[in-house]
Structure to design on (418 residues):
DNA sequence: GCAGGATGGTACCGGTCGGTATCGCTATCT
DNA sequence: AGATAGCGATACCGACCGGTACCATCCTGC
């Protein structure tokens, strides 16, 4: 149970410039991601941001507020990716659907920590924690968006296809953490493409075996 | 960040009988499951088991050792379920495959906390923590077992089918926690049966639409 | 019946937790 | 130039963290 020291080389603060509030949040966001919400204390956040605990509490009422902002931030980042996919395949829902899977696979391969929202939900064991609502709402939005995309792509059973893809991606993210890059998550693209095709949605460029 | 009090009604100790070591482990196992590894202190475990911290440290060298034993225990419990499925469908790999999915769905619906091994992997952010090895080995074994089952059932691409099911189930477990019972995890059986069928494995009793 | 080991209780260690009070400094605005 | 507000630092609060020392009791095996 050795607590990891703060002073290790990899723990150099991310942001030493900009307004204190931004620096604090940047560091909080990064530390929450890497060490988990319960694995980081407010003191460590303040120190990483090159400031003091008091300055932190001048901008955030409590650690919980920092957590909520962290969760909303991660949700926003994810929304940006959706917009990006749409921009890359304008007016082409099938392309967007395949693009969504490809993008997810890349993100999963790159980040060993998995989904920050899902991780937070596991750490927030306090019943009725306000963060849980944020997470649930985000995931529901994600599911709905995926369903709409499947509908637009002309899938035979759009709701079922959307949930299948949702589960596959969600599973790949946690599996990436548990079993590593060579585990089942490595097959996310193959398996997703197969499922999409089996629901009657064919991509133009590639055809799954 | 209000720490939940130990004295709440739902926190009555699970086991007050039996040998101290067993009582301690029973309580540790239950508390780890409900509040997460980092959410429970050794003192709380000892208290729940109706004993003292010293007694705990007489049986376990450290909290880490307790964690390792917890992880191994959860792995063993899961192995028992495999044996159960085999016993219920002797010599019938196709039945076992469908039985596996059904069983997984039931477990997911019943337990909102998801997979304890996966949850632990998220909480164990200390790099190279011995528990991570236990988790990885278990998940690898699970994957291999599922692959063998898919082979025996005569699936067209057993490795790919196994990984697809693996990801679906893993995803359903975390989704159950994030979005609740009515989320995508509710469709685990439908979606899994569809995938199994699309790999050329038909069940006798039911035929997915 | 007696010895030895396991048990439970209490107090303690240094350290961290989330959160607060009080400094003196400095940058900005008028 | 003077008022104001944000700032960094330090010390502190009660509580808990993982882990240890010590001691009185109690149950067991011989």
């Amino acid at each position: 149970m050795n607590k990891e020291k703060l002073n290790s080389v990899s723990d150099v603060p991310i942001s030493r410039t900009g307004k204190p509030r931004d620096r604090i949040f940047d560091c909080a966001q990064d530390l929450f991601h890497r060490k988990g919400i319960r694995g980081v204390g407010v003191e460590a956040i303040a120190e990483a941001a090159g400031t003091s605990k008091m300055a932190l509490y001048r901008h955030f009422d409590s650690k919980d507020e920092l957590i909520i902002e962290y969760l909303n931030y991660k949700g926003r980042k994810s929304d940006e990716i959706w917009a990006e996919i749409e921009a890359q395949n304008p007016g082409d829902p099938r392309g967007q659907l395949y693009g969504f899977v490809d993008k997810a696979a890349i993100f999963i391969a790159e980040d060993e920590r998995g989904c920050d929202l899902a991780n937070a939900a596991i750490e927030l064991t306090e019943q009725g924690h306000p963060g849980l609502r944020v997470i649930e709402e985000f995931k529901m939005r994600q599911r709905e968006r995926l369903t709409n995309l499947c509908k637009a792509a002309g899938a035979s059973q759009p709701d079922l296809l959307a949930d299948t893809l949702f589960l596959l991606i969600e599973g790949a993210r946690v599996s990436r953490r548990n079993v590593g890059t060579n585990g089942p998550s490595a097959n996310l693209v193959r398996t997703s493409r197969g499922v999409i095709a089996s629901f009657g949605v064919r991509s133009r460029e590639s055809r799954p075996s």
Observations:
- Chain A touches chain B through 56 residues (CB under 8 Å).
- The radius of gyration of chain A is 19 Å.
- Chain A is about 65% helix and 0% strand.
